Structure formats: structure tokens, C-alpha cells
């Protein structure tokens, strides 16, 4: 384990194996009957305890994420706040959800599908663990979580925090380990009834195949290649900060990053210099500097991946507007990337179609509204899209044409109860609110 800002080793992680996963599944199965019998009000009390525990440990969790992951300070503080919020929102959902419904003479009972498993990524470890746990608890089930082995310090910190909240024994089980070992066991073991996964599309495809053997229910939140449609009536003074924020969210290491910026041909000469100025102003550095907008890549491997895409884009004929290969000027250590923007990009280039997972943006021109919609939808992904303009009715009309799980208008603040998930290769199912809760439940009809 290394600090990505300094490349210094900061620890070692002991990896679990398939036997460890089996033991965790057995513990979760022992805890399941008691959890299944809890009432929604009892689960609300437990969720509130977990929320309070995360808030009380806020500073320690921020420190762990800063050292091990190194994202910009604004993202880290927001992530820890979100980790507490998901428990609060899950409690609200559980309190208002109709677990029992009457349809004619039939009583329909929504009950937990069975023991859940979650596999979480490294780009917001604490937040993802809390999100999966909160939903499982709201549904009344126990869970086994395999976090990324690249986030072991953060995992240790959040598990200690959650343990201090007094979770019933066996309800939360965490196994560090490789996906091809621990993840494979969770995907195939018949003791798991539900899998919730956040990560790459390739891994999601493998999990789906493994889960199908025992008819596991799955929620897959996968990759994205989000378009940002800048309409011809957009106010650039207002839009530019939103464009930069969406493109470089979490240093670009985010499935929801808006990495394809679609601009109207009619305003290209005006927009490109403004884009260059806005993106060039983004500061790169370590998490302890509040002015930083882009932190280091998580690992040397990820740094090399981003560098390879920067070279590939130029090989394909794209031109560098901002940035380029290598580290930013004045930085000699750490896995830092120069925030890079490409122009002269066409939507058939790999740089426009594949998820880079770094601060790399493609600018693509369109002639009219219909072509903007067609370009936005011409992708294997469909997770989160963005529209920037001045006419709300027009933006909403265009939003309904986009094949995307979420469409954000002018960087509006997120709604904590809104469903999150994708179309096409961006996944299956939804998280958050009632939609996320239902993914952990099955309806039972009692007729008569």
C-alpha cells in the first residue's frame, strides 16, 4: 500500500481467501433470521446509530482517505458526509416504505431476498461500504462486503467506526481480498442471495455470469462515459465552472464524470478559448491543499493507464488543447497527471468511447440539437449525463431523449432519494431511496 501523492509505502494488507469468504458467509447466514424478524422501526434506530458513529469519527475517516487515496479535500469531506447521510436516508426510506400492502384479498409482504454480498471499488471506499450496508440493513438482511484491497486503511477505519456502533454479531462481515478469489466465492456461493457491485463493466459482466448459476439477484453499477451537452443558449460564465467540476470530479476517477463535452459548432470559436482557460486553471496537488482540484491517480498502474490514453488520443488524430503527457510542471513524485483536454475528437475514437478514469476530456462539436442527442446516446454506456443551457423546458425535453440513468441540469444538487444506476453497459438495477431498497426485497403474496 502506497501514498499516491508521495509513492511511499504506508502499510501492508493481509488478503483473505475463499475459506475466509465462506466463514463470513456462514456468519451472515447465522445472523440473517434475527435480522429478518426485525421491525422497520428497530432498523431505523440501528441506522441512526451508524450515522452518528460516522459523524463522530469524521476527522479520522478523512485522514485515512487523504493518506491512502489522496483525492481533493473537497471530495474527501463530501464523501465522508455522504457516508453518514446514506444511513440517515436509508432510515427515512425504511420508515416510510410499505413493507406490507393489500391488493384485493391478497396481502403482499416485501421481505429480504436473503443474505447479501457487496463488492466495492477504491474510488470512494468508505462511502460505498456505507451505502451497501445501509440498504441491506434497511431491508432487514445481513451482508458480506469485499472492499478493494487497494483501500485497506480506509476499510479498517470505517469498520472500526461501524463496529463501535454496536451492530448485532454477524450482520456485517468484511473480507479483504482479490476479486478473482474472494469476489469469485461471493459470486458463486449458494449461501448468497443478492449481490450489489460497483466497479468496472468487465468485472460486472463476470459477476453476472457467476451469479446466474444460483439465480442471485444482482445490482450492478458500472462504468460511464458521460456526455455534457452545452446548448447554444448556455451562459458560459455560469456553465464553465460546472463543466470543469463534472469532468474532473474525484480527479476524473469517477464513473459519473462528464468526460465528453459536446459543444455547438456555431459557438466553437467562442467556447474553445474559454474552455482552455477554465481547464488550465485547475490546480493539481495533494489532499492537504484546499485549492487543489485534481489529486493523484490511485496507483502507478492507473497513472500508466491514463498516460496510455493520452498518447492514444494523439495517435488517433486528436489535438491537445490543455495538458498532455507526463506529470504537471514542478511535480516530480507522486502519481499526478496533467489535466488534459482534447479537441478535434470524433465520437468513433477510442478516447471518446472508452472509460479512461482520469482527468482526460474529449471536446466534440455538433451541428444541431438532434446531432447533440445522437452523439450523447452513441455510447455503450448510459450512467449520468449533463445538460447546460438557459431554457429549462428545452433542457427537460432533451433530457427525456437521453439514454441515461441520470441527467443533471446545470449541475443541480443531487437528490439523496433519487435512483442511481445505468442503462446499457453502465449496469443493472438502481441504488438509493425506495428503488434501491426494493432491489434487496422480494414480494410474497399471501392469498385468501
Automatic annotation (TrEMBL):
This is aldehyde dehydrogenase (NAD(+)). The keyword Oxidoreductase applies. It comes from Paracoccus aminophilus JCM 7686. PROSITE patterns: ALDEHYDE_DEHYDR_CYS (PS00070). Residues 2-446 form the Aldehyde dehydrogenase domain. SUPFAM superfamilies: ALDH-like. GO terms for molecular function: aldehyde dehydrogenase (NAD+) activity. Its EC number is 1.2.1.3. CDD domains: ALDH_CddD_SSP0762. InterPro entries: Ald_DH/histidinol_DH (IPR016161), Ald_DH_C (IPR016163), Ald_DH_CS_CYS (IPR016160), Ald_DH_N (IPR016162), Aldehyde_DH_dom (IPR015590). It catalyses: an aldehyde + NAD(+) + H2O = a carboxylate + NADH + 2 H(+).
Amino acid at each position: 500500500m502506497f501514498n499516491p501523492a508521495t509513492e511511499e509505502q504506508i502499510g501492508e494488507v493481509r488478503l483473505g481467501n475463499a475459506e475466509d469468504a465462506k466463514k463470513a458467509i456462514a456468519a451472515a447466514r447465522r445472523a440473517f433470521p434475527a435480522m429478518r424478524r426485525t421491525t422497520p422501526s428497530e432498523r431505523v434506530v440501528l441506522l441512526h446509530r451508524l450515522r452518528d458513529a460516522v459523524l463522530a469519527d469524521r476527522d479520522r475517516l478523512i485522514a485515512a482517505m487523504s493518506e491512502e487515496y489522496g483525492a481533493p479535500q473537497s471530495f474527501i469531506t463530501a464523501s465522508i458526509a455522504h457516508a453518514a447521510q446514506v444511513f440517515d436516508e436509508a432510515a427515512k426510506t425504511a420508515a416510510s416504505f410499505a413493507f406490507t400492502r393489500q391488493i384485493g384479498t391478497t396481502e403482499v409482504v416485501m421481505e429480504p431476498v436473503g443474505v447479501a454480498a457487496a463488492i466495492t471499488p477504491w474510488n470512494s471506499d468508505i462511502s460505498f461500504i456505507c451505502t451497501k450496508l445501509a440498504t441491506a440493513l434497511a431491508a432487514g438482511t445481513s451482508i458480506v462486503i469485499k472492499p478493494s484491497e487497494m483501500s485497506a486503511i480506509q476499510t479498517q477505519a470505517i469498520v472500526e467506526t461501524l463496529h463501535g456502533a454496536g451492530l448485532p454479531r454477524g450482520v456485517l462481515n468484511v473480507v479483504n481480498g482479490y476479486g478473482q478469489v474472494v469476489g469469485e466465492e461471493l459470486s458463486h456461493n449458494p449461501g448468497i442471495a443478492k449481490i450489489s457491485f460497483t466497479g468496472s463493466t468487465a468485472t460486472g459482466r463476470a459477476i453476472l455470469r457467476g451469479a446466474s448459476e444460483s439465480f442471485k439477484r444482482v445490482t450492478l453499477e458500472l462504468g460511464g462515459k458521460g456526455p455534457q451537452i452545452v446548448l447554444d443558449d448556455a451562459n458560459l460564465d455560469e456553465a464553465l465552472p460546472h463543466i470543469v467540476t463534472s469532468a474532473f470530479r474525484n480527479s476524473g476517477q469517477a464513473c459519473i464524470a462528464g468526460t465528453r463535452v459536446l459543444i455547438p459548432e456555431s459557438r466553437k470559436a467562442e467556447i474553445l478559448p474559454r474552455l482552455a482557460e477554465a481547464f488550465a486553471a485547475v490546480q493539481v496537488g495533494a489532499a492537504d491543499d484546499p485549492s487543489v482540484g485534481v489529486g493523484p491517480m490511485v496507483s502507478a498502474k492507473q497513472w500508466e493507464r491514463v498516460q496510455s490514453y493520452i498518447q492514444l488520443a494523439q495517435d488517433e488524430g486528436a489535438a491537445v488543447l490543455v495538458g498532455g503527457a507526463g506529470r504537471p510542471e514542478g511535480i516530480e513524485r507522486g502519481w499526478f497527471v496533467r489535466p488534459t483536454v482534447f479537441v478535434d475528437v470524433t465520437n468513433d475514437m477510442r478516447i471518446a468511447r472508452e472509460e479512461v478514469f482520469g482527468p482526460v476530456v474529449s471536446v466534440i462539436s455538433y451541428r444541431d440539437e438532434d446531432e447533440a442527442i445522437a452523439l450523447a446516446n452513441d455510447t455503450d454506456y448510459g450512467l449520468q449525463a449533463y445538460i447546460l443551457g438557459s431554457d429549462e423546458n428545452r433542457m427537460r425535453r432533451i433530457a427525456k431523449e437521453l439514454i441515461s440513468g441520470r441527467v443533471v441540469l446545470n449541475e443541480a444538487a443531487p437528490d439523496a432519494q433519487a435512483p442511481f444506476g445505468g442503462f446499457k453497459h453502465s449496469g443493472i438495477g438502481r441504488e438509493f431511496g425506495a428503488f434501491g431498497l426494493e432491489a434487496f426485497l422480494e414480494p410474497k403474496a399471501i392469498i385468501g
